[in-house]
Amino acid sequence: MTPAPILDAPPEHLPTGNLEVHVEASPQAPSISRIGVASLGLNGLLDWVGEPLLEVSGRGWQVSRLADWIPCWENEHLTVTLLAPWGERGLALRLEPKQKGPLQVAGNLEYLGLRRFREEPLDCVFHSGQDGWTGSYVLEARTYRTLLALGLQADPPPRRTNWGPQFVLEWDTGPVTLYLGLAPESDGARTTALHLRRVGWESLLRKTLHKLALLTTHYSGPLYEVYRRHLIFSYFYAQADTLEGEPVLLTSRSPHYYVSGAYWARDALLWFFPALLKADRKRAKAVLKAVFQRQARWPGEHAQYLSGPPLYPGFELDQAAAYPLALARYLEATGPNPELVAELREPLAWVLARVAEEKHPSLTLYRTFLSPTDDPVREPYLTYDNALWCVALERLAPFWPEPEALRLEARTLRETLYRQAERNGRFVFSFEPGGPHTFADEPAGSLLLLPHLGFCSRQDPIWQATALWILGNDNPHHYKGRFPGEGSAHFPFPSGFGLANRILSGLMRPAGDALMILEQAPLDQGYACESFDPETGQARTGVGFAALAGFIAYALAAGKDPKGPTV
């Protein structure tokens, strides 16, 4: 296994940003530790990193957030607001004094880092200066070419400027607004900073608040603030617009997530995409087309570079099934679209052909090399994975030019699973047809989801017996405590995935427990994490997990009124 590192104390962090820029700030003071972008050319996340990279002087700060996303720090002297404006590759930092007195902003750039799972400080030279044409202060990281540039404008200009990788800016009084622009080189950085200053603080803030509100306008489920928090975090950290102008999906942009900066089809299309589809259909269509064309050439691979090829090889059936199911969900939400289906037919053919390579020699069943927790499997046929593939084909069939072929495959697969995957009255986790099997469950691909997906009904006695086992004491990875839940060998604690599974199961008591945990447990700064302590509710593994945040938001929206039997 390659399990997640277990955290003794989860990090304190305050993510913010937009589709172009991600930012890590401090919940203790108006301080930024990193500002970054996604890069297709470098196949990862490119971050300016400092300790701190930028900080406003002062003490006694209290932090809050506008719209659950825009950090706002306040003390008796000053209010500081950090804005990543909608649709802009940059930031705006607003200092509004409550009394007269000097203001100071300082920073200390340590390195430019490239993140893809781990982070690599790049061997580059920093060049700084002021541009006479635009008036911008410019900072560049250069090797044989510029890798990333940052431009800065201040309104009003500072009375003291000490600009460079280590800088100090001072004003006699305020208000003051700093505008920071990022670009592949200095021309774009200096002009972007000037553009942001021309647009102005009030317009940038007003537009961003309006767009943030639109993302959650149509929500009517439980725990609205929890939903909004998770939806917005996932919206800006599970996808990006790269330096090259292309949309990408990725597991997370957060430096605190242990495999950030890469594409996982399951994380992107099964966990995040349904939430994106509810919040922003136009964007959902754009990223769906992008990943079909870019990543579907290598369907089912464990993890992939942002540009497409395998990064961490190993076939996973659930990752391959994510493609047809995501397309089906989009078409179910928006209606038939023969033009889109025709455009994506060839990429989907790559997916179908790759899965066909894993078919059993004589049965309609499909193997997987890795499980939904990305670990090698004991037996190669997984009930959840095959059920997911069955449902994906079945739901796509109404929109497909040859629907009967997909329906026949799905029907035969369902019948085979009921013959092969049922033992002692419940579904097994994995099996060999007619041979050994394993009773287990993995929250990242749980049998609790089978009715929600459409594989069976909640009244199915085999599924009910399976759910009773998963949620009961016979499951070795069911954890009791103030904040109970299900985990796995990969993370031996209750899981954030388990919270979503419980809500989507439609089982009232487990769903109610999940809602309680989301409302009361500290988790990861209020965000669901891969796993958490059953007594304290603190994160134990997988913090900064943006794709999981999307799955939680989707579960809250889709499972808002659970009905059915109580387990």
Task: Write a brief caption for the model.
With 567 residues, the protein is α+β, with helices and mostly antiparallel strands. Strands 1, 2, 3, 4, 9, 10, 14 and 15 form an 8-stranded antiparallel sheet that branches. The protein has an 8-stranded antiparallel sheet with strand order 5-6-7-8-16-13-12-11. It has a 3-stranded antiparallel sheet with strand order 21-24-25. It is built from 14 helices and 29 strands.
Overall helicity = 25-40%
Strand content: 25-35%
Computed over alpha carbons, the radius of gyration is 25 Å
Number of helix segments?
Answer: 14
Structure description:
The structure is a single chain. By secondary structure, the protein is of the alpha+beta class. It contains 14 helices and 29 strands. The strands form eight sheets. Strands 1, 2, 3, 4, 9, 10, 14 and 15 form an eight-stranded antiparallel beta sheet that branches. Strand 24 (430-431) and strand 25 (437-438) form a beta hairpin. The longest helix is centred in the middle third of the chain and has 19 residues, at 338-356. It is globular. It starts with 13 loop residues before the first strand and ends in a 9-residue tail after the last helix. Residues 560-567 have low confidence and may be disordered.
